[in-house]
Fold this protein.
Amino acid sequence: MNKENYILEAENSLLKTYKRYEIILDKGDGVYLYDTDGKQYLDFASGIAVFALGYNNQEYNYALKNQVDKLLHTSNYYYNLPAIEAAKKFTKASGMDRVFFTNSGTEAIEGAIKLAKKYAYNKDGSAGHEIISMNNSFHGRSLGALSVTGNPEYQKAFKPMIEGVKFAEMNDLESVKSLVCEKTCAIILEPVQGEGGIYPADKEFLQGVKSICDKNDILLIFDEIQCGMGRTGSMFAYQDYGVMPDILTSAKALGCGVPVGAFAANEKTASAMVPGDHGTTYGGNPFVCAAVSKVFDLFESDKILENVSEITPYLENELDKLIEQYDLIETRRGKGLMQGIVFSVPVGDIVLEAQKQGLIIITAGKNVIRLVPPLVITKQHVDEMIVKFKSSIDSVVNTNNKH
């Protein structure tokens, strides 16, 4: 069967919730992906910030293969060694005290919301507490996660959302203060907004939000599903700011390909939940936790954080030089290997042209190119990306000028 027939078969069988590109990816190696025609692509999307270690890492692969031969799944009525090891490594790396493994980032957000509400309920015995989130944020597609997502376009067809969610402006402390009331139980935000367009938080803003939370016994939730796990140069982005959350969510690069997420909390907050308050069938099973455990090992042995810190200045400098060459590029914003290139025009055609050039990039809104490559890239990969990116822009500009 040829590619066109495979795509037709997919379109006839899969729910149409994605507008997919006409590429069938077949395998990966390092920072490259290959389609079923054998075409090679330099990957600067890493499965939407998932494949931090790159593709076909043999130590990672072996850890999963070894676990497959031992035990894939038990229920959470029993302990399993990979979950114990993964939990120990996660809490050590994050500074949190307790962690709950989920199947996805969205489920991690759901757990964080429930934990915050239960903490508040234990304090005053009442329900109906409120959460403050940020405009332009993205926290997931389930109804709970969607309710704290600051984008009305995502919400309008699925209302009513859960009650008691208010939206402040990122990096505007006064807008947060104006929404705080006696019902506020939590403030949730991404230290670096991802889907909303790559907006890093200001240090003063995060410190100010933390002060508000401490003063009012409000829980601070950091969503690090995309910006965490080394992407900014620290294991978690909040560690760059010197601000500790009460609850942390993680996913994506946490498992580097297997479906796993987590929400974690300090002891004060975690103790609010008791048996029966929350659960999961697959979350924290031996297979995914073997992956999580190995990811933390490889981050250390392969010096992933050091590589991000080394490559980031080079990437930023090369991007800034590129920006100077084009009037249609307005600015660059981001942190570490999570960069947004802001255009004055829609960027969909540039993404398509980049694929023809053998470069995979993605968007963060209609006019922002998002670069979230594997954290193992080298300066040579940056150079290759810049050449392909520039060629893609030139091709689109020339085509538009002809029309």
